[in-house]
Design brief:
Elements: H1 3-33, E1 71-75, E2 78-84, E3 99-102, H2 109-118, H3 125-131, H4 136-179, H5 196-202, H6 207-215, H7 220-228, H8 232-237, H9 240-255, H10 284-292, E4 317-319, E5 326-328, E6 341-343, E7 348-350, E8 365-367, E9 374-375, E10 389-391, E11 396-400, E12 413-415, E13 421-425, E14 438-440, E15 446-447, E16 462-464, E17 471-472, E18 486-488, E19 493-496, E20 510-512, E21 517-521, E22 535-537, E23 542-545, E24 559-561, E25 566-569, E26 583-585, E27 590-594, E28 608-610, E29 616-620, H11 623-626, E30 647-649, E31 656-657
Parallel strand pairs: 1-3, 4-6, 5-7, 6-8, 8-10, 9-11, 10-12, 11-13, 12-14, 13-15, 14-16, 16-18, 17-19, 18-20, 19-21, 20-22, 21-23, 22-24, 23-25, 24-26, 25-27, 26-28, 27-29, 28-30, 29-31
Antiparallel strand pairs: 1-2
Helix pairs in contact: 1-4, 6-7, 7-9
Length: about 675
């Protein structure tokens, strides 16, 4: 080796040693920085000093790249403006990734090679020791110092994030104020700034109510709030419950055009306690249905309450049926959690049943019939475990009947009929409703079958499924309903034979089986139904055989319909004993023989006799029948015979004639 080569090698060795000493100095400097450290770090990788220039001296920002994780880049003058990237040891392996790489600022290829030769990535502790035997202790100190450095930086980062969040929030708030200078902040009447009393009272209400109070003077809530403050003395003397109650009632008044109610006596009169404000003297559902179905409502909400409020002056009964309420029920109505009965039916009230109904857990009676309500029935109804009366007839509810309703086993009156967009079934769990007296589900798309468990409703007085889509057969267990007065299944898809057990329903007043697909013979046991004013309708089925003569024993029978079946044989002469009969129809069957002379005795009460569509009938119509002039007595529950054809109708043929010259007999 020549002298020049030896000299060049010496220079390089000295440069390497100098750079090695620089690395040691960097580690020592880091130790000094971390003397005030607070413990080891948990970061996997942390960039401290920026972006290291690429080997070759290209400082163009577009040419920069991130260095290898775990490398410390230093130079002859200490830390360069590059990266300090630290990677903690992988707990799954013993490999230590701590490397010191030194780049010369000259940017030459030789310098790069030298740096890599001195600070090559080392994967084993053995190799690190061989490469840097004099700095094993320094390496350990650097590792400890790095952990302390990580802790310091983490704490600083957390502090910066917290401060940044506060700054951003304040900036956004200020921005909103600056960008929306015309937006008004709602103020609470009656004063511009709430007093301590106002704040205390406002805290009694929900956020939605407070917004409604504050946003507009025209809302029912805002009007009720202003009314409340007209008598500030009462705000001091009344309990919180009384204050909420007065506000809720005032909101109801304004929300339903209280000035136009049929009767609003004493309402919003500060000098008269709200318990003395006008309400109906009777639960309207009872008053209304009692007039339609006399004698059916025994024990319905008995005994009827005699006052609106309890001893604490809190409403228990609010009845405003048929009182010209127009509008919608406010959510504040459900503040009245002491209510036991609420009846506002037969008014022009729009909207839906609020899910807040579930807050009225003391409720025993709910009358929302015929109001124009729509929407689904909220499942929160199932929370009203004390409910005895649930009447939402004649509205426009839709969706499925909530299954939660069938958990209310204290119900005595369940009525959601005439809601044509509802749908549902009768579950077998209906047998648990031992107190149930009314089950009204007509014209609300009930499907499925009538479960045999229906026979367990020993107190049932009325069941209507008119105009639904119930299929299957009538269970024989229905004959166990000894208190049943009205059974109407008009216009369904029922089929099969009629159970003879139905003859045991001795209290029946109306039995409507028309418009189904019943077949077979008519059981003679129906002759046991001796209850007064009975209506029996078998029309428009597929019944066959002869008409049982036993039906002639029902001396109080008002309506008896056989038309539209396949009956054969003679018309029983025993029917001449039906002294109360008003409507008697045999049309469109295959009956034969003559009209019994005994029918002449029916003319005092008979107003309709239909014989057409029986080509095998013969003889002469008795003159007393030709001259019948009785007046239709009116509707019987869901069936109104006066809406149908009245008078005598028969096919005048060569074998059946009478009554006038146009149908003279030859």
């Amino acid at each position: 080796m020549d002298k020049d080569s030896e000299g060049e090698q010496d220079i390089r060795v000295k440069e390497v040693k100098a750079k090695e000493e620089t690395a040691t100095s960097a580690a020592t400097a880091i130790d000094a920085i971390n003397e005030n450290g607070h413990g080891p770090m948990c970061f996997s990788t942390l960039v401290v000093a920026g972006i290291q220039p690429l080997p070759g001296g290209n400082n163009d920002p577009t040419s920069r790249q991130t260095s290898q994780p775990g490398a410390i880049y230093v130079g002859s003058n200490g830390l360069l403006p590059g990266q300090l990237l630290l990677e903690e040891e992988n707990p799954a392996t013993t490999t230590t990734r701590e490397t010191v790489t030194m780049h010369s600022t000259s940017g030459t290829q030789d310098d790069t090679e030298e740096s890599l030769a001195v600070a090559n990535l080392v994967d084993q502790d053995e190799q690190v020791h061989q490469a840097f035997p004099d700095h094993e202790n320094a390496r350990k100190r650097r590792r400890d110092s790095n952990k302390k450095l990580k802790t310091n930086i983490l704490l600083a980062a957390i502090l910066l994030i917290a401060m940044g969040t506060i700054v951003v929030t304040v900036t956004i708030s200020a921005s909103k104020k600056n960008t929306d200078p015309d937006e008004e902040v709602p103020t609470l009447p009656p004063s511009q700034a709430p007093t301590s009393l106002e704040g205390s009272i406002l805290s009694l209400f929900s956020d939605e109510t407070i917004r409604a109070i504050a946003t507009e003077d025209s809302t029912p809530q805002s009007k009720a709030w202003q009314w409340l403050w007209e008598d500030q003395d009462s705000l001091v003397s009344h309990s919180n419950d009384r204050i909420k109650q007065r506000f809720a009632l005032a909101t109801l008044y304004y929300a339903t055009a209280g000035n136009d109610w049929n009767n609003n006596t004493n309402w919003l009169n500060h000098s008269i306690p709200e318990c003395e404000w006008y309400t109906k003297p009777d639960f309207a559902t009872k008053a209304f249905t009692s007039s339609l179905y006399p004698g059916v409502l025994s024990g319905f909400l008995e005994p009827m309450p005699t006052t609106n409020c309890n001893q604490h002056g809190l409403y228990q009964h609010l009845w405003l049926d048929r009182n010209n309420l127009v509008g919608s029920l406010p959510e504040e109505l459900y503040i009245l959690t002491s209510l036991q009965t609420l009846s506002v039916g037969f008014n022009a009230i729009q909207g839906t049943i609020s899910s807040q109904i579930g807050a009225l857990t003391a409720l025993e009676g709910l009358g929302f019939a015929s109001m124009g309500h729509n929407g689904i029935i909220p499942s929160e109804i199932g929370l009203l475990s004390n409910l005895q009366v649930f009447a939402i007839d004649a509205n426009d509810h839709h969706g499925n009947i909530p299954t939660d309703i069938w958990s209310l086993t204290n119900l005595r009156h369940l009525s959601f009929g005439v809601n044509p967009r509802l749908q549902g079934t009768i579950p077998s769990s209906v047998g648990k409703f031992q107190s149930l007296r009314w089950l009204l589900m007509d014209r609300c798309n009930i499907t499925g079958t009538i479960p045999s468990e229906i026979g367990q409703l020993s107190n049932l007085e009325m069941m209507t499924l008119t105009g639904d889509r119930v299929a299957g057969t009538l269970p024989s267990a229905i004959g166990l309903l000894q208190k049943l007065r009205i059974l109407s299944v008009f216009g369904n898809l029922l089929h099969g034979t009629l159970p003879s057990e139905m003859g045991q329903m001795s209290t029946i007043s109306l039995l409507g089986l028309a418009g189904n697909q019943f077949s077979g013979a008519l059981p003679s046991e129906f002759g046991l139904l001796t209850q007064s004013r009975v209506t029996l309708s078998f029309r428009n089925n597929a019944l066959s055989g002869t008409i049982p003569t036993e039906l002639g024993l029902l001396s109080q029978l008002a309506v008896l319909e056989f038309q539209g079946n396949q009956f054969t044989g003679r018309i029983p002469s025993e029917f001449g004993k039906l002294s109360s009969i008003g409507r008697l129809t045999f049309a469109n069957n295959s009956l034969s023989g003559t009209l019994p002379n005994e029918f002449s005795a029916l003319h005092p009460s008979l107003h309709t006799l239909a014989l057409e569509g029986n080509p095998l009938l013969s003889g002469t119509i008795p003159k007393a029948i030709c001259n019948m002039n009785a007046t239709c007595a009116g509707s019987v529950f869901l069936f109104d015979p006066c809406d149908m054809q009245q008078g005598l109708s028969f096919d005048c043929t060569g074998v059946l004639c009478g009554c006038d010259d146009e149908c003279s007999c030859f």
